[in-house]
Amino acid sequence: MFDTLSDRLSGIFTKLRGKGRLTDADIDATAREIRLALLEADVALPVVKGFIANIKERARGAEVSQALNPAQQVIKIVHEELVAVLGGEGRRLQFAKQPPTVIMLAGLQGSGKTTLAGKLARWLKGQGHQPMLVAADLQRPNAVGQLQVLGGRAGVEVYAPEPGNGVGDPVAVARASIEHARRSARDIVIVDTAGRLGIDTEMMAQAAAIRDAVNPDEVIFVIDAMVGQDAVRTAEAFRDGVGISGVVLSKLDGDARGGAALSVRQVTGQPILFASTGEKLADFDVFHPDRMASRILGMGDVLTLIEQAEQAFDADQKDKMTAKLMGGEQFTLEDFLDQLIAVRRMGPIANVLAMMPGMGQMKDQLAEVDDKHFDRVTAIIRSMTPGERTNPKIINGSRRARIANGSGVTVMDVNQLLNRFTEAQKMMKQMGGMMGLPGAGRRKATKSPKNKRKGSKGGGGRPRSGSPAGGAPFGGGMPQLPPGMDPSQLAGGQGLPPGFKLPNIDFNKLRKRDERDK
Description:
Blueprint: H1 3-17, H2 24-40, H3 45-59, H4 62-65, H5 70-85, E1 101-106, H6 113-126, E2 131-135, H7 143-154, E3 157-159, H8 170-183, E4 188-192, H9 201-214, E5 218-224, H10 229-241, E6 246-250, H11 259-268, E7 272-276, E8 284-286, H12 289-296, H13 302-312, H14 315-327, H15 333-345, H16 349-354, H17 363-367, H18 372-382, H19 386-390, H20 397-407, H21 411-434, H22 440-447, H23 449-454
Parallel strand pairs: 1-4, 1-5, 2-3, 2-4, 5-6, 6-7
Antiparallel strand pairs: 7-8
């Protein structure tokens, strides 16, 4: 959604990096370009004015004039001000002292309220709660049926005593749901209310009546991030007419300009609690202003990437890999397959790569990344025998031909995988030495002091410069960044440990195949 804005800001910052000292004219020109970029992104004018005023004031202060790298300091200021616009520190849901906690969803028709209700219920269930969905949208055709389907997918109860489609009293349903939740030991009640195509008195009166009937702990306004300034005006109307306590951004995966998402916090005064980024129930997460600001500025989102990896890799898998590293055992193709499957659980590979710092500069290459490449790798490994997965050295020419036929690929594809796997094994040995663990690296160094002095692949506890220290969760099997891509030189080096370098990705091997290539 923020691709256009990110590109504009990246171009502005590129011009700044070549200047050793910033004059007032440079600051004014930069502020002017940032203002135009924000206005083109449909950010509300009052928000833009305040944002630019703060940047110019701070940029003329001592923190920039006395900085060794003034351009990086300006980027830091823009990042901090962007975080402030998005709400500063994220706020979490307020739970009732005595359950059930009541969450009321409000918004216009088509904003994604019903889908959001299912996503929120699934997320809360994953947090250890027992949520219940309430079908209080009795006006929109099949709204009740849609909520029941989503509740089934999320594995939560749906309270729907009325069929909907214009039949039933939504206020009575909402009121009765609270008592039903107490009897059923549900600690959270999520009330899905009706919307309209536009603001009208009837909708506001019904929303206010439901609010009075259930006395919600949270009134969350669901805003369609693709609508633009109309969404901000609607949020203001709901704030004044019903009283909202938080905002959820839906459809952040769209290709609109995204100004509403940057404006709603400042305009309404209410925090953004969650963000919805797709159609699937899993495409939903807590909103972090600092992480969103980093994405907009092309700094990546390493923390979210780590969190997703922790969810994708189960505890047994992590313990198994730790034991292998600790014991100096060989990293096998079976381990490689397990980790590849876990990476695929994290979602589309392009989305995972986009969270790495600096990858915002490579949108065209990411758009061409084909997940089927990883499916082919999985098919190749699964066509091997257990013995071949444990010891790939026994895979001779006839075995390679058999594996290629079994997986529907060419012998060249099998050869390329085995070569990359050999490199992955070497990297795992390096990691063992880097972590100061027994095994891999030290045995080879003992046999050859000459190699140890040269800092060979198996030597000592120190990695060679540029070794991919961050590849642990992926077992070295992930593709590589373009040569020379050094995150310490990207996004001001923020968010990564000193000296950290990501592996190189050859996008040519991952691009989507044309029909003639298949």
